[in-house]
Amino acid sequence: MSKTNTAKPKRRLADRRDGRYVKAPGLQTVMGYLFPKRTDCEVYLHDTLDATELMAYLEKKNAAHPDYKTTVFHAAIVAMARMVKERPLMNRFIQGYRMYERDEISISFVVKRRFADGAEESLMVLVPKDEDTLDTISRKIVGDVKETRKSEHATGGIDELLDIFASMPRLLLMVLIRIIRWLDFWGINPKFLTEGDTNYTTILASNLGSIGAPSVYHHLNNYGTNSIMVTIGTLHKEEMTMPDGHKEIRDVIDIGATLDERIADGFYFARSLRLMKHIFANPEMLDQPLGETSGFDY
């Protein structure tokens, strides 16, 4: 497998700290002015992924390491990371009427500190590297989640910062948020405001299957740079029509995705989904470092 080029281009005046300026085609440029809000440009996607091969793969992997469990969610995170790695337009965003492309892939999700009503939530951000595989990313996720759940309350980072904001008087907080949004528009927000914030990641994922819920459509946010929201539903059995025409009961997972249509066209989105399906059907790809191209023929 060939390796993708990881060299970062030199920063230019028009670049942001979290992305490189991209000269967009005419249609996308004008759309950015006609529809400046990300929530005005949401497109929704719902599909069912055949997870039969993936479940057999995970069962074999977990049998070899009974003290550690790699989950479907871990595999989905790695599949999304590989999809973005090979489909770079999925790593773009529009802010301040301009299009940018990130230098790195980032996937975020929310962790419930306890599975109970009223329990606090914590924000987590994963930045996969070229050398990462399912094993390394899975252990990273598990380690971070365990560390987060050691405490009932925020212990630092963006969670603690949000608690500080929430304690401010209403008028002061209103003024502060206006300033932050202005900084966000121009791409000059200080790093301590954006690091660890799910609104500044490539994909915000929600593992609804972990609480027995189906996939849903979740809105995007105008604040920040996040252009893709993905929800993953419960694993279940479903009758599917196979390529040769016969029907078979398979393990499937429903996914719901909300995307900013300004970053790419429908054809590009459809091919990106095809790559996700290919990875689920060929889960051994998850053992390859992300920096190696899959060679998938679209």
Our estimate of the beta-strand percent is 15-25%
What structural class do helix, strand and pairing data support? alpha+beta
Number of helices: 8
Q: Can you identify the CATH superfamily of the domain at 20-151 and 211-258?
A: Chloramphenicol acetyltransferase-like domain
Distance between the termini: 17 Å
Total number of beta strands: 9
**Level-1 CATH class name of the domain at 20-151 and 211-258:** Alpha Beta
The succession of helices and strands, N to C, reads: EHEHHEEEEHHHHEEEH
Q: How would you sum up the major sheet?
A: 6 strands, mixed
Relative helix content: 25-40%
Say what oligomer this is. Answer: single chain
From the 3D structure, determine the CATH topology of the domain at 20-151 and 211-258: Chloramphenicol Acetyltransferase
Shape: globular
Mean pLDDT: 88
Low-confidence stretches: none
Just name the CATH architecture of the domain at 20-151 and 211-258.
2-Layer Sandwich
Radius of gyration: 20 Å
Biggest sheet: strand arrangement? 2-9-8-7-5-6
